[in-house]
Amino acid sequence: MGINDLLKLYRHLMIKEQITHFQGKTCAVDMMVWLYRGVYASINNPSTGPLNDLYLNFPLKLLSLLKSNNITAICVFDGKNLLAKSSELLHRKEFKEFNINLSQKTSSSEEKRKILNRALNVTPKMINTLINVLENLDQKIIVAPFEADAQIGFLYKTKQIDFAISEDSDLIPYGVKKIAFKLDQFGNMDFLDLSEDNFTNNIKRIENNENISSNEKEISKFLLNLNQDKLIKFCVLLGCDYLSSIKGLGVKGCIKLIKEYEDLEIIVKMMKLSGKFFLSENEDSIYIENVNNAISVFYFQIIYDNINKKLKYLTNLDELDYERGKDNIQELKRKSNLLKTFEKINKNYYGEFFDNYEDYCNGKIDVKTEKKEKEIESKESVEKYSKRFIDLKLENFEFDKDDLNIIKNELNDIKNNIEKEIKEEEKNIELNENKEENKIEEKNNKNENENQIKEVNEEYLENLLGKKRNLEISELLD
Questions:
Q1: pTM here?
Q2: Number of domains the chain is built from
Q3: Alpha-carbon distance 157 to 39, whole Å?
Q4: Nearest alpha-carbon partner for 338 in 372, 315, 361
Q5: For residue 397, what pLDDT is reported?
Q6: Residue 461 pLDDT more than 90?
């Protein structure tokens, strides 16, 4: 899920880039994204059945693309389920089950495919299988203790990577400033650079962009000027994996609240005073607590420190020590709130510390059972893909039939989405035209009515004047 509408809000700050511009760099890859895209390709390939190992082809091809451009990749996988995300995971599970049941009730193969695409699932066996192939290829691997986003945030914070590759907006509040989205097999991507060095360029790009409205420019500038604390608060209010948004609180409302008020309690109070949100006294305090809890996850989720070989919180408590003379009142309050939340919350909310973390985080044991003997889809798949990719070089980097099927399916989806948007736009235009016609008709009717009233009034006045004249004549004759 990520943060509601966040990537949509940042879209005008993204630029079209090519992977060739990142030669010699190091990146972290959210492998779960590529695995899902691989699973999507495997169930949408007309030449294969539903059970195949094509899901391995997609992530390995993209890793080969990075390798051929002299880019060092650190492959990061999701680990254990996070307590803070339990309600979101339950919702996803129910949604997938609903679509699986729905697919069984349709006879149309095309309709069934579309429904099953909403129920895609990456199993622990698939993850184990891909990790085994990557080990054979001497690829750097980290299985996050919990979420890959937080782990990638740590890698960026400690300057182990130059940028990250993902489709997930959560990387932004986790502090990653350079992210490649929608990387395809040709090396094309949408690149977001929120680093301080690029601030001036971002502002100029927004101001000089004639294709976006003044409102969109203001939103982009608002995002660029957010510090990390306000950004996290904004993301939580929008709605994230750790807390759903309040019904009726949209992007405009969140921006207004974050712009005008620093304190969370004041923000909630103003939400209540607006009369748009139904928050009782008890719900006020509960919501404030839930928001603080969600904010704290972005600071304190447990990650694997691959430099010092230990588990730790993403933010060290030492970093929250007050700096006498440097911290203003708001900064003191922010640190104080974080510490209070950390002290009273169930620490398992951020994940649990566990003993066999080195083997787990280095991919040496099963991601689910944590046994040394991993459960995989098939040994044949591991051998086949290891052999296929081990000696891959730039000159023999080619797209095969499976790749072309993936591209074809993705292009079809893009085409369908564009057609859908065009139809919606045409519908909106038609509605607007109808509204305009109705306005013109209403105006004509109004003018016609006014003319009729005017005519009636003139006739009425004429009659009155006639009667008055007759009366005057009658009086003279008398």
A1: 0.79
A2: 1
A3: 31
A4: 315
A5: 44
A6: no
